[in-house]
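Notebook B, p. 112. Complex prediction, attempt 2.
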Amino acid sequence: MNPLFLSGIKFWKTLRFRLLLFFTILSAIITFSFTAYYVVHQKKTSLNRLQQDAKLILSALKTTVRLPLYAEYREGIASCIAEVMDNNALVAIKVYNPHGAVLGEGHGKSLTKGGKTITVREDVFIHDYNYTPESLLLGEDPKRTKRIGYIDITMDTTAVAGQMRSLYQAAMLIGFIFWLSTSIIGFLLLRHITEPFQKLLAGIKEIEKGNLEPDIRFSPGDETEQAVNAVKDLAASLREREEENRRLNDDLIRSMRLEVREEKKKMMAKLINTNRMTSLGLLVSSMAHEINNPNGSIRFSNEYVAKMWGAALPLLDKTQSREGDFLLCGLPYSEARHEVLTACDNIERCTARIEHVIKDLRSYSLGERLNPDPSVHINAVAESAISVLRAHGRENEMQILTDFPDSIPPVHGNAKQLEQVLLNLIMNATQASSERKGTINVATRYDATSRQVIVEVTDEGKGIDPDDMPRLFDPFFSTRIDEGGSGLGLYISKYIVDEHGGTISAESTVGKGSTFRVALPCSLPA
Amino acid sequence: MDRGRSEVQILRYLILAITTLLVAALPAFAAEVIILQGSSSRNMEQMTRLVQNNCGASNRTLVLSDYAELDVERMVREEQPAVVVAIGDQALAAAKKVRRVPLVYGMALNTDENTLTGNISGVSMIVSPRSYLQLFAALKLRRIGVIHDKNRTGAYMRRAVSVAAAMGIELVPLQVRSPKEVPQRLTELNKRKVDALWLLPDSTAVTPETVDAYFTFAHRNSLPVIGYSAAYLTKGALAAVELIRQDVGRQLCDKVRTSKSGVTSGTSDAATGKVFFNDAVAEKLGIKVPLMSILPPTLSFNG
């Protein structure tokens, strides 16, 4: 691992480094400031001390030189100067009279090349007023009597400069050592203080990698413990959430599979149903053909037999009038005469009915498209649909009540298709009724306002679930898939009604029944 | 119309009443305390500021050195202050003529207390004699020589003598009428075998000419000198008791307040002081510097 990259970030960007840098810079600034202040202060102190030494010498000299100075006695002045010349830093003493003439001077150590000096001057008066009550207590300026001269003392500051140099070097060295040790101690302390933070960071990285149960060590009792606990709680809640997500995901997948399976079942049922319908259509077609042929034979044979009986009747009547009533197939001729005729009528009617049913079945299954008729009477269509239902025996024990006013105007359309629509509606009504019992109302009326012919089919069944209402007219939607419903009846009915320019709608109350309404534009001119 | 006229009249009377009240109250806006400052020395200005800030009354300050001639009596008559404060000898001399108004003085060195009238009270420039005597007792000094002018520090010395007797300390006061008499008095003191020399802020006894004489005498006879300023320690004094100006200022303000209420309390000494010791001199004289706990409570130790 590159030592310059810790925990994935550059070393100089880490918190530790920045803290350490800040700390070392701060300690360097503080160390340098204090060192500089100390050196400057020491320099000032040394210079002040030198000045005080000068003042002390002056004070002593003033006392002794006052009288010789007053008398301008040079030898006396020189002697006074000589008494005080034992200071190492003393460069020169000069005693002046009030006019500036040098009355005495003394020289101490010679000044080194480039050396610096300070000169202190004090006036000499006859008397010293600095110790009077007025001066000390009231702060009044000491009264000055006659000035008799002044003294200059020059002190060499070279020693001070030398001391300062040594002091500066020592201070820099000590300051550097102090700064270095402070930085090292600071580094160790920082490392120790930020250790919990590093551990916490490592723990968070583990969580990032996916380990939601990280082992993070911490120092108990301080903020890191709280942080670690918070992170662990976060990891625990993340873990729980992940498990919950997984559970929900599984549930979702399971329910989706189930739904897909159900949908597939329904789809297959619908496909099977469609296929069955197609097969049924084909079956019906072939059945129609198989039934039509013998039916036609029966019908033709019946016609022949009826004709032959009609031809034989005068002969048999003559025989009866000559010989009296006789037995024919065990029946007296007077009874058999009517029975044969009745039987032929029955055969005629039944074969016609068979033919009609087969024809309807064929046209229904093949969806024959007949030419549209401008004057289709809806009452007749409704009656035809009801008769088909009755012929197929589908009404069971249902009572179909009709209300067909005579004044219904004709509509423009295909009577057979409209019959198919009404047949679907009536069949749905019978299927909706509980145990196939109850009443179905089929009514027609004319709405002069909208100029529409309206057919209403009302049942007393279980009603339609409000959730299913929006999907009633969708293809393959059926509530009776298990009973063989194709889900296409209402879809096809809507299609046919739309093609006729009309509308189909439904109203239902659960538990009470439903009403399907077909509205078709009438074909009469306005 | 009549109603309007009466309203205007009411307004006029109101304005007149307010004006009368204001005019009548004008004297109240004049200063309660007049402070006369003798000169513009630093210490006097400091004392004046202390009185201004702490006297608790409206005040006005006049510095005598700013005027060629100031008639204090006339000014007091016109301004009618409750109290006049005089800071310094010059101010006290100028204000002494004022008899009807209480006068409080401070920072006056050359005051003969005997000449002060009943309306005058003040604070002297010396710490109370009891404080000094207690210090002498702490230093185990029994016979104390003092040279003074009775016209300046006579009243103080009388107080000191009466207190000293009760404390078992003998004061040896020698009077002078001029600085020239000091050397002679020093010779007398030598004969009287005193234990220490006490310097009072007496302008007759302590002059530029006589200061050195005191210390030369003390050095020769190994006598400790106790003075009233730390400056004397550089000359070889053993100890000094300096008065604390802030406390003197507070004493002055207390006197101003009591004077306002009509009570005159005469001259008081400075109640507190700060003690300074010269350890080198003490060592040379063989005197032990007392611990702070032994010092009298009115004195604070300053090393």
